[in-house]
Design brief:
Layout: E1 13-19, H1 25-36, E2 41-43, E3 52-59, E4 74-82, E5 84-86, E6 95-98, H2 104-113, E7 116-120, E8 129-130, E9 133-134, H3 135-140, E10 150-162, E11 166-173, H4 179-189, E12 194-204, E13 207-208, E14 213-214, H5 215-219, E15 237-239, H6 242-249, E16 254-255, E17 265-269, E18 275-282, E19 285-291
Parallel strand pairs: 1-14, 3-12, 15-17
Antiparallel strand pairs: 1-3, 2-3, 4-11, 4-12, 5-6, 7-10, 8-9, 10-11, 12-13, 16-19, 17-18, 18-19
């Protein structure tokens, strides 16, 4: 007698991980898939292998929320080595240029010049693509790509400690900003040379590394999984009545007052407070754009 197949319980939600140095963001995603027994895991912004800190993971059906993830600004703690520029813009590369360490005043002026909206040329060993080829792959085969400048925003950066040939900084910036490239450009703007030797992500939007679990807890399958609603804390919440929850699950428009009259999107929740969908303002009601629960 064949027993009926049993469905494994699904896990949908948000996981905050404190990534250690020495592994890629993709490695963390693979560990999460295995430990949580889920196929769908996405992350809200890559960290370089040498970098540590906050990696925001979305699991299961919550991966549908990636377009709405509250991920800006990013805040990093970094250490910049003065006097040498490397081909990777960080400590993993080879030194390509050396210069005397600039005076502190020159470095502070350079920081100010690299604040606000700036045109940044990504690092040669970045994940940027040109005609389908990754920049780091081209650089490793000795044919670096000609990367176009990208507009990024550096909201603020501040020196927190000075040493003879190093400076520790805290940087608050937009997504897509390469802190490695900032270190490189800081050296050049100050009349010297520089590269990044340490990088740690402290915040991503409203998410804080202090709330993240370590990799071993994730590997053991014991990482806290926050409900999907936790992934969109900046969206106003609209509570649905029981009789409208099914309509939303079927993708149908529903009426509902917005807690914020100017809100274009809202999180629609059922009577238990669970996220049903992210919806877009449609006249006096809401049109479901991303539905989490099945109909």
């Amino acid at each position: 007698m064949r027993l009926p197949a049993t469905r494994m319980p699904t896990i949908d939600g948000l996981v905050l991980v404190d990534k250690p140095a020495g592994i890629t963001s993709h490695d963390v995603v693979a560990i999460a898939r295995h430990a949580l027994h889920v196929r769908r895991v996405g992350h809200g912004g890559t960290l370089d292998p040498f970098a540590t800190g906050l990696l925001v993971l979305l699991v299961g059906r919550a991966t549908r929320l990636l377009p709405y993830l509250d991920g800006e600004p990013k805040v990093y703690a970094a250490t910049i080595k003065l006097g040498d520029e490397t081909d990777t813009d960080d400590g993993t590369g080879a030194v390509v240029r050396s210069a005397p360490v600039p005076p502190r005043e020159a470095i502070e002026r350079a920081m100010r010049s690299l604040t606000g909206e700036i045109a940044q040329v990504p690092s040669a060993y970045s994940a940027k693509q040109v005609a389908g080829e990754r920049a780091h792959a081209a650089a490793r085969r000795g044919a670096p790509l000609d990367l176009a400048p990208v507009q990024v925003t550096v909201h603020e950066w501040m020196a927190t400690a000075w040493r003879e040939d190093e400076v520790d900084v805290t940087v608050r910036c937009s997504g897509g900003t390469y802190v490695r490239a900032l270190a490189r450009d800081l050296g050049r703007a100050a009349g010297g040379a520089a590269h990044l030797t340490a990088l740690r992500r402290l915040h991503s939007g409203r998410f804080d590394v202090a709330a993240a679990c370590d990799l071993e807890l994730l590997r053991a399958g014991a990482a806290p999984v926050l409900p999907p609603l936790a992934a969109v804390p900046s969206l106003p919440v609209v509570a649905l009545a029981d009789d409208t929850v099914r309509q939303v699950r079927l993708g149908r428009d529903v009426a509902g007052a917005a807690p914020d009259a100017g809100a274009r999107h809202a999180a629609l929740v059922d009577p238990t407070g669970a996220l049903v969908a992210v919806a877009q303002r449609q006249g006096d009601g809401w049109h479901p754009r991303t539905v989490l629960a099945d109909g």
